[in-house]
Specification:
about 120 residues, mainly alpha, 5 helices, about 75% helix
């Protein structure tokens, strides 16, 4: 079975190299699909937004400025990621970043009120 091309009686179909190369280029379904589909895997804004949104919550309590910056970046990248693939992760990152930013704003307001009451 493995030696079929070597022991054939001359009826084995033979094509020249150029026609094989041309048929592979024109009839390859995977290459044609990759050419027609828009590939958005190079822009992982949704997953980055989700990671930044998740990291911003504990960082808000440890390092508040870094937590607010991460939440702001999560909101920005999540809004960009809504147009690309990974839309669910972009929405989750957007919500987590917004929640963290809201908690940060509430903490700043409470801190200012406590400073005013101390004076």
């Amino acid at each position: 079975m493995l030696l079929f091309p070597f022991f054939s009686n001359g009826s084995f179909p033979v094509q020249n190299y150029e026609s094989q190369k041309l048929s592979v280029k024109t009839n390859n379904q995977m290459i044609n699909q990759l050419k027609t589909e828009k590939n958005d895997y190079g822009f992982p804004f949704g997953s980055i937004s989700l990671v930044l949104g998740l990291l911003s919550i504990p960082l808000l309590f440890v390092a508040p400025i870094v937590g607010v910056v991460f939440s702001f970046l999560g909101i920005v990248l999540g809004s960009i990621g809504l147009e690309k693939r990974g839309r669910g992760m972009a929405i989750a990152g957007l919500l987590l970043g917004s929640l963290t930013l809201l908690i940060g704003i509430i903490y700043v307001i409470l801190f200012v009120i406590s400073l005013l009451n101390a004076l």
